[in-house]
Amino acid sequence: MSVVADKAGGTGSARILGFWMCTALVVGNIIGIGIFNMPANLAPYGLNAITGWLVNVVGCALLALSFAGLARALPRDDGPTAYITRAFGKGVAFLVMWCYWVSIWVANAAIAIGVVGYMASFMPALTRTPGLPALTAQAMIWAFVFVSLRGARTAAWVQMLTTALKLVPQFAVIVLGLWLLLTNPAIYTAHVPPNPASWHEVSSVSALAMFAMLGIECAMIPAARVRDPERTIPRATLVGTLLTAAIYIAISAVPLFLIPQKELAASNAPFADLFARVLGGYYGEILAMFVTVSGLGVLNGWTLLAGEVAQSMSRHGGFPPDLCRENAHGAPARALLITGLVTSAMLLINYTDSIAKVFALLIEIATAATLPLYFGCTLALIVLRRRGQLPSGSPRAVLPVAAAFAAVVYCAWVSLGLGAEPLLWTVVLGGAGVPVYLWSVHVHRRSARLGIEAA
Hints:
Blueprint lengths: L4 H5 L9 H12 L3 H9 L5 H26 L5 H10 L1 H30 L5 H4 L3 H18 L2 H32 L15 H15 L15 H30 L2 H5 L4 H10 L3 H33 L17 H18 L4 H32 L8 H24 L1 H35 L1
Helix pairs in contact: 2-9, 2-11, 2-14, 3-10, 4-10, 4-11, 4-16, 4-17, 5-6, 5-16, 6-8, 6-14, 6-15, 6-16, 6-18, 8-14, 8-15, 9-11, 9-14, 10-16, 10-17, 13-14, 14-15, 16-17, 16-18
């Protein structure tokens, strides 16, 4: 069976994304609002948070190697939908991609909520005016739907700009941490969390921290639009993942040691609070502005991918054929509009509690709903290799398969750390896709039958 991106993509899908745009998509979609809110979510785990981060980075590197192996072996395929279809059939591929599509709009709702939390640092009226936080989050969601409607290249340029800007606060946190380490090292021992070592807590941290690393797969999702995918997708995936991991390890420890544990756990904007606490003045507000840009950038990138995922599912028979249609800018307009609507609905349903509680719940659901994609791609690599459908023999071919085996174990580890509630949400949301798939199959068959009769 051949699942070819060029044919699947239709005449409107041009290969316009190069290495730097794909790398910006990976880095930009990983580094979003998640890492800036994560210190508050991980504060209750103390130093186990650092161990959990290290485990998480190793696991994500294994996943990145697996994705790179698939892209290198099957460069003409239409991304993960095609890989999983080859290995397990259309039904399984639909359920996996449906869960992933759900994870994107759940994540977008969480990201919009997190951005509003940081905006409140320099716009206090957001927390004092009833309904304004939800309205602001909705406005951001739809602003980036309209950016993506201008085409993949426009969204990619926005992504490159916001990625460059979002690295400023990352390096600012690193510089602040190094400066304090050199000038006042005792400050790092003043608020050491008292938690004893616990593998149970490490597992929970790995599940939470995975949300901050979601996006390592982003270079392979729009495979039909990537130039020289055999080289571009693996390089962008690996470079983006390793660069982000290095930044995350460097900045994760600073607020954990410098802010008291209870205060950090209650913070809506941990890095802004860190700068305000250490430097005073308006540093916290300035950092919050950069974090807001970071959140807006990741919202842009995920919105672009949500349309690509829905369009790919339509090409493979999972969604109605109308979602394949592109506007004059080559954007999957109907797919983007539907994604905007369901994201808005998810946001309104959950915007009834504190920002921290809602954010924590949504990131767990988004992480759980992404795991089927990670399981699906890694297992697909293993199955296709066993069938002899992938190159074998050379070290370059063996490494991704070995990484895939280890990545499956890592994903199982994360699943245990998530707990029952997010996994139950994934089962419910995944189950909701079954009637959609059956209806779409009926629509595609009817369209094909009518086309044959008309001929």
